[in-house]
Amino acid sequence: MKQIIPFAHDLLSQSVTKGSVVVDATLGNGHDSLFLSRLVGEHGNVYSFDVQQEAIDQSDKLFNEQGIHNVTSILTGHENAKDQLTKRGIHEIDGCIFNLGFLPGSDHSVTTSSYTTIEAINQIFSLLKPERYIVIVVYPGHEEGRIEKEKLITFLKSFPAKRADIAQYRMVNRSDKAPFVVALYKK
Fold first, then answer.
1. DSSP 21-68
2. What digits encode the pLDDT tens for the residues 122-142?
3. Which terminal residue of the chain, N or C, has fewer Cβ atoms less than 10 Å from its own Cβ?
4. 166 has which bridge partners?
5. To 10 degrees, the CA torsion angle through 117, 122, 123, 126?
């Protein structure tokens, strides 16, 4: 059985190919962007967003160490993704990942929030090509994460089924605080 992050990555690998343009809506420590970089290859592009300079610096160091040159790290919240992408001439994307919560090993008071996450999902969904995924890893184990999870699930339950199929992947024999994946598949 796949663990949470490998499952999220597997979903993206179903529709992201060499030369694709993808988004990492929450750069964090850079591991999702590194995975996406290898998936899209040297002719693809990864656009990664984070509100913390520390995340950008750590991730850019990782990319340099790995010889990765197809990731653009953008110091802004993911709720600004559409504006930032269209400024760069990007009007459609092949996939997106969100890894919600806080930057591991950093200030835990700086977290994603339901307001910005929902805004970002709406924006990114409008750029997403049909038959592609937005994958969200949700971390309800801290108070802000619990609130974000509740509001996010309420929002997704109201999302029109004619526009997307939305599924959850979680371990049912784990705590309600355990991380899980939500996948939006654009029709």
1. EEEES--TTSHHHHHHHHHH-TTSEEEEEES-HHHHHHHHHHHHHHT-
2. 999 999 999 999 999 999 988
3. N
4. 184
5. 150
